[in-house]
Amino acid sequence: MKKLAMIGCGGIGGYHLGHFLQFKDIELAGFCDLIISRAEEFVRRAGSGKAYVDYRKMLDEVQPDMVFVCIPPYAHGQIEFELIERGIPFFVEKPIAIDEDLARELNKRVTEKGLITAVGFQCRYDNINDAAFQFFKQEQVIVAQASRVGGVPGVEWWRNKAQSGGQLVEQTIHQLDILRYFLGEPEYVYSVAARGYISQKEWPGYFTDDLSTTLIVFKNGVQATMMTGCYALEGAAWDSKMTFGGRNARMDYVLCERVTVYGLTPEDAAPEVEGLVIKGDGALRRSDSEKGITTRSNVDFGLICDRTFIDAVLTGDGSKIRSPYGDAYKTVMFALACNKSMATGQPVKIEY
Ligand SMILES: NC(=O)c1ccc[n+]([C@@H]2O[C@H](COP(=O)([O-])OP(=O)(O)OC[C@H]3O[C@@H](n4cnc5c(N)ncnc54)[C@H](O)[C@@H]3O)[C@@H](O)[C@H]2O)c1
């Protein structure tokens, strides 16, 4: 049986372990964390394998066939260089790095080695994307608008932009990845961020943006705006929603939840917004929230994401992986360009 090892046994590591426990055709052989009790707890949950604090020792002893890398954003680099050097296929959590030079170098070496890799953009495996791609086939999109507002995640490193990459790189990256998945490559970004709504008293060690707004121009001419934040207390959060608009039809895409299409047929013509809206003829009318054709998420896309990578390693065929390293690298460079724009106050051209 092929052997799987994991480096980083924290929150997202536990999510992946929950999936592995459903797979009977791989051996859970090693778990590594700087905090040994976390690795030991994963061994206990797995019912197999050995706990390590030193990933090199684990690689030497276990000789894994694949590795899941689930470490915080600031910790990327040496671990991946070692895996590439040893030729071990790996799955790594987003963001693959928070430094452009490091991301570029890692991507170069992964490509040169031709390794099977995957990155944790699991939303790409959701069934709602089939409905979304169907919409894009039928309608030429000209604008997009995205938003996501929530609170501050509990892990300590998240609150420090130097360690996490900041709210946009760490959290909003799922939106950026889906925008790229649907609309192709971005050309320019202009981002502004705001701080000061969250206090040190509330979250000690909090040195990151509370929210950010980004204007994106895609190479195909589509214009998008995106506002996301982590400032919201209970009740103030809102859906992770994107709207894609063409001249005849539009699509609401609620990440990991549903797609609703309006305007492709006469039956689904009304927009879903409540209250008075301006119709195509310019008149104000009350909308009909019953309209629209909705497709709901009904698959465990996180499980499919992990299984797709494992199957790729077992068969040697990585073609079904929807977010290989080289593609995720572009999403990370997209996000880091937004950070650069925030820092300089200038629009930034995206270069991979
Ligand atoms: N795909 C998703 O939807 C999703 C969701 C949550 C988190 N994540 C990503 O997963 C990553 C980790 O997040 P988390 O919430 O699990 O963080 P976490 O802090 O809960 O876990 C990270 C673990 O890595 C360990 N670690 C750090 N450096 C290490 C090293 N050199 N060797 C071994 N272990 C090391 C830490 O001790 C910790 O236990 C982040 O990049 C985050 O963005 C992705």
**So what's the CATH class of the largest domain?**
Alpha Beta
For the biggest sheet, the summary is: 9 strands, mixed
Rg over CA atoms, rounded to whole Å, is 21 Å
Instruction: Give the uncertain stretches in residue-range form.
Output: none
How does CATH name the architecture of the largest domain? 2-Layer Sandwich
Question: What proportion strand?
Answer: 15-25%
Helix content: 25-40%
Shape, per Cα inertia axes: globular
Summarize the helix and strand pattern as letters.
Answer: EHEHEHEHEHEHEHHEEEEEEEEEHHE
Which sequence of strands runs across the widest sheet?
A: 16-13-12-11-7-10-9-8-17
Small molecules bound in the structure, each named once: nicotinamide-adenine-dinucleotide
> Please, how many helices?
10
The CA-CA distance between the termini, in Å, is 38 Å
Number of strands: 17
CATH superfamily grouping of the largest domain: Dihydrodipicolinate Reductase, domain 2
Find the structural class using helix and strand composition. Answer: alpha/beta
Overall domain count: 2
Can you describe what's shown?
The protein has 10 helices and 17 strands. The model has no long low-confidence stretch (mean pLDDT 94). The protein has a 9-stranded mixed sheet. A 6-stranded parallel sheet has the order 3-2-1-4-5-6, sandwiched between helices. Strands 14-15 form a two-stranded antiparallel sheet. It has helices at residues 11-20, 36-46, 55-62, 78-86, 100-113, 128-138, 161-164, 166-183, 301-315, 325-344, and strands at 2-7, 26-32, 50-52, 66-69, 90-92, 117-119, 143-149, 186-194, 211-218, 223-229, 238-245, 250-254, 258-262, 276-278, 284-286, 293-296, 348-349. Helix 4 links the parallel strand 4 and strand 5 (90-92). The chain folds into 2 domains: 2-123 and 302-324, 3-Layer(aba) Sandwich (Rossmann fold), CATH 3.40.50; 127-298 and 335-344, Dihydrodipicolinate Reductase, domain 2 (2-Layer Sandwich), CATH 3.30.360. It is α/β, with parallel strands linked by helices and 352 residues long. The structure holds nicotinamide-adenine-dinucleotide. Nicotinamide-adenine-dinucleotide (NAD) binds at residues 7-13, 32-35, 38, 55, 70-73, 75, 93-94, 120, 122, 155, 170.
